[in-house]
Design goal:
Elements (H helix, E strand, L loop, with lengths): L4 H4 L18 H7 L11 H4 L19 H4 L12
């Protein structure tokens, strides 16, 4: 991806070519769920999954809307864990 973090974090950033993901999950689990890779726990499937796509960072991004009252306050995002 050629975009800088400050671009990715802006409202309206184009993610139309991104892979949709549900959380909590991992990148590999998302790609397996979408049939891009075989289930790594079956047979020798893990050996068939290339390493290269996982050597760089991946982004997770979502958008949400705040009411005017919420936007006037300090808002904290809490993550139970990041993989």
């Amino acid at each position: 991806m050629d975009a800088r973090p400050e671009q990715v974090s802006r409202s309206g950033f184009d993610t139309s070519r991104w892979t949709a993901a549900s959380v909590p999950s991992t990148v590999l689990a998302t790609l397996v769920e979408q049939d891009r890779y075989p289930d790594p726990y079956g047979g020798m499937n893990l050996a068939a999954i290339p390493r290269a796509p996982f050597l760089s960072s991946w982004w997770y991004r979502t958008e949400f809307t705040l009411t005017p009252d919420e936007a006037a306050k300090t808002v904290l995002l809490e993550f139970d864990g990041i993989n």
